[in-house]
Amino acid sequence: MTEGHTVKENAKERLKSATLYEDMGFLLTRSRAVWVARDRAFFAEFGLNGRLYAVLSLAASGENPTQRELADFLRLDASQIVALIDDLEQRGYVERRSSPTDRRTNIIVATDAGRQVHGEARAAARDGEQSMGPSLNAEDRATLLALLQRVAFEE
Amino acid sequence: MTEGHTVKENAKERLKSATLYEDMGFLLTRSRAVWVARDRAFFAEFGLNGRLYAVLSLAASGENPTQRELADFLRLDASQIVALIDDLEQRGYVERRSSPTDRRTNIIVATDAGRQVHGEARAAARDGEQSMGPSLNAEDRATLLALLQRVAFEE
DNA sequence: TATTGTTATACTCTATAACTATA
DNA sequence: TATAGTTATAGAGTATAACAATA
Q1: Do A147 and B144 touch (CB under 8 A)?
Q2: String of DSSP letters for A7-43
Q3: Residue B24 scores a pLDDT above 90
Q4: Alpha-carbon distance B74 to A59, whole Å?
Q5: A27-57 pLDDT tens trace
Q6: A GO BP term, please (chains A, B) (predicted)?
């Protein structure tokens, strides 16, 4: 039993000698999976997931994004934004406001309820990161954030 | 036209003021999407995708992993490993060898052809990163890699 | 009893194409 | 002609449950 556990952990360490352990694509994939699996629990408390949270966050930013701008920023197809907005709108968290200058475009803004939920979900995720997150100090965290911002928005 | 492009880019910059731009989960998700979209072209040349490449890479590592060990290292369910190995085995890139000490377990090893393809795919991805990748210098890249290794394997 | 590999299933995410109404 | 939003569809990725063989 304890031996089994030890063997399994040793295997995990052993495989770190593989070239894959230096592969950026693999590390980004595994890091993201670990991170969102933890976030999921905190967001589920508010009926949200990562994508709904992201849209709500931008809607609550005060920048009045259009659906197209949401799609570009989140790197999702415009068709996916439709379903996400539909969902949040039905719950009364965001509103579609037609632009006064271009009747094709919708401006997405968070309602009071939407801002409230976003604030609570954000706090829950932040607290969760502190209690269960990786052992990154403030400096490491800021460094990682800055590097990811460059990779994420290079295209 | 050029104005439209400018407006769109400004919107993207404008939304960076949102709290989401500091959100680790979002940045990991977007970084991964950007990275694997680029990798996809290089891997497709060899009939591979990110997950097949990862399994092949571990099979070619010389560490003789079992299917269970592959699942743990890649953070995939054991049932997903079955299909990936089936695929690679049919192409003659890996073999299932039953363990001499435990008849339940399969040890996965790359064939000569598998090692060959893995080497070529790895070189193509590396070259592609240099020509199309983010403007990270060697130090930034190493820093990012080390931080991601910690996040990816914290659990 | 517990673990390895396996099959099956459902759900989410992602990628594409085509349509409409406006510009 | 081009763009914003929408609908539809198929494929890839992910999460769970259950089973047979073996430990």
Answers
A1: yes
A2: HHHHHHHHGGGSGGGG-HHHHHHHHHHHHHHHHHHHH
A3: yes
A4: 35
A5: 999 999 999 999 998 999 999 999 999 999 9
A6: response to stress
pLDDT value of residue A135: 81
Q: Is residue B23 part of a domain?
A: no
| Residue B78 · residue B100 · CB < 8 Å | no
Minimal Cβ distance to A61: which of B18, B57, B129 = B18
| Option in B11, B23, B144 nearest A69 (CB) | B11
The reported pLDDT for the residue numbered B132 is 80
Task: For residue range A61-85, list pLDDT tens digits in order.
Answer: 999 999 999 999 999 999 999 999 9
In a domain, B6, yes or no: no
Question: Which phi and psi (to 5°) does residue B131 adopt?
Answer: -85, -35
Mutate to test the interface with A, among B109, B151, B153 (most CBs of A within 10 A): B151
d(CA B79, C1' D16) / Å: 11
Tell whether B101 is covered by a domain: yes
Distant-in-sequence contacts of B35-41, Cβ < 8 A, 24+ apart: B35/A24, B35/A25, B35/A28, B35/A151, B36/A25, B36/A28, B36/A29, B37/A155, B38/B128, B38/B129, B38/B132, B38/B133, B39/A25, B39/B125, B39/B128, B41/B128
Nearest residue (Cα to C1') for C6? B79
The confidence band for A4, taking pLDDT boundaries of 50, 70 and 90, is very low
List all nucleotides in chain C with at least one atom under 7 A from a protein Cβ. 2-9, 12-18, 21-23
pLDDT digits (tens, 9 = 90+) for A96-118: 999 999 999 999 999 999 999 99
Tell me, yes or no, whether A142 lies in a domain: no
Number of domains in chain B: 1
Window A7-36, strand C contacts by Cβ < 7 Å: 8
User: Between B139 and B154, where is the model more confident?
Assistant: B139
Domain at A95, CATH number: 1.10.10.10
